């Protein structure tokens, strides 16, 4: 059994007269520790899927097994626990607390879980050893994204979900952040899922899931993924 199994997953938005089918019978798997991409154009249904996988929204039909547990069957309380302990989130716009330092932002996240990692060690791991006491406004975009990755990873999540994590960053910084995410998946065996428009990154991933018009168009496995450093776009 794969670590993540998406089976016959549907999400419909009932808009009165019309129904919008945002996820239309998705079926795919992701193995533990993979660096996986979900790629597709705007409106394809990527965020809809991520919201369901992340426990922020509910499927209309179908199931998502994570480590054998069907998260579509969880009640509200169980979903809160799932979001808190099992999930790490990284978004395009970092969402850091502006009045807390980098270290305090990470510490805050670790306070709500049981088996958290040492916030200082995690900040060191993402290359911010010397910036822990800075506030977000004193950090570059790339550094702020590193803090948000540290904050997500410090919770020791089963799964790290990243929605357009390089969307607000320049080319070089975006590459560094993607390399960091891929390295983390390797060094911690955390499953990392990145949602992106950027098809050029595909050769660097272990698995590429292409979505278009609410459906899965293609799933590709790369046995020997490229280093992100070797990819140009
Ligand atoms: N809460 C909602 N109510 C109604 N329709 C929605 C809702 N959320 C998303 N949709 C619709 O579902 C479809 C898929 O949207 P979604 O945001 O998942 O796409 P996406 O691939 O993430 O796009 P983008 O890359 O632009 O974020 C779109 O047609 C969108 O308008």
TrEMBL record:
**SMART domains registered for this protein in UniProt:** AAA
Fetch the Pfam families from UniProt: ABC_tran (PF00005)
Q: Please name the PROSITE patterns in this protein's record.
A: ABC_TRANSPORTER_1 (PS00211), ABC_TRANSPORTER_2 (PS50893)
Q: Has the keyword ATP-binding been applied to this entry?
A: yes
Record keyword Cytoplasm present: no
* Family annotation (InterPro entries): AAA+_ATPase, ABC_transporter-like_ATP-bd, ABC_transporter-like_CS, MacB-like_ATP-bd, P-loop_NTPase
The superkingdom of the source organism is Bacteria
Its keywords, alphabetically, are: ATP-binding, Nucleotide-binding, Transport
Give the UniProt family note.
Belongs to the ABC transporter superfamily.
Name of this protein:
Putative ABC transport system ATP-binding protein
Origin organism lineage: Bacteria, Bacillati, Bacillota, Tissierellia, Tissierellales
């Amino acid at each position: 059994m794969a670590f993540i199994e998406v089976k016959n997953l549907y999400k419909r938005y009932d808009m009165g007269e019309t129904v919008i089918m945002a996820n239309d019978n998705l079926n795919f798997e992701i193995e533990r520790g993979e660096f996986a991409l979900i790629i597709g154009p705007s409106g394809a249904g990527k965020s809809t899927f991520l919201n369901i996988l992340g426990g922020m929204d509910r499927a209309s039909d179908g199931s998502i097994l994570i480590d054998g547990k069907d998260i579509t069957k969880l009640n509200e309380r169980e979903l809160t626990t799932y979001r808190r302990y099992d999930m790490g989130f990284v978004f395009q716009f970092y969402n850091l607390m502006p009045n807390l330092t980098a270290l305090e932002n990470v510490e805050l996240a670790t306070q709500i879980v049981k088996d958290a990692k040492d916030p200082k060690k995690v900040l060191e791991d993402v290359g911010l050893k010397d910036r822990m006491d800075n506030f977000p406004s004193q950090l570059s975009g790339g550094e702020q994204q590193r803090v948000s990755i540290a904050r997500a990873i410090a919770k020791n999540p089963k799964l790290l979900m990243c929605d357009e994590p390089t969307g607000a960053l320049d080319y070089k910084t975006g590459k560094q952040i993607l390399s960091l995410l891929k390295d983390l998946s390797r060094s911690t065996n955390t499953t990392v899922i990145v949602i992106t428009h950027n098809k050029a990154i595909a050769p660097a991933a272990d698995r590429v899931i292409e979505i278009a018009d609410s459906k899965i168009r293609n799933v590709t496995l790369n046995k020997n993924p490229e280093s992100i450093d070797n990819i140009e776009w």
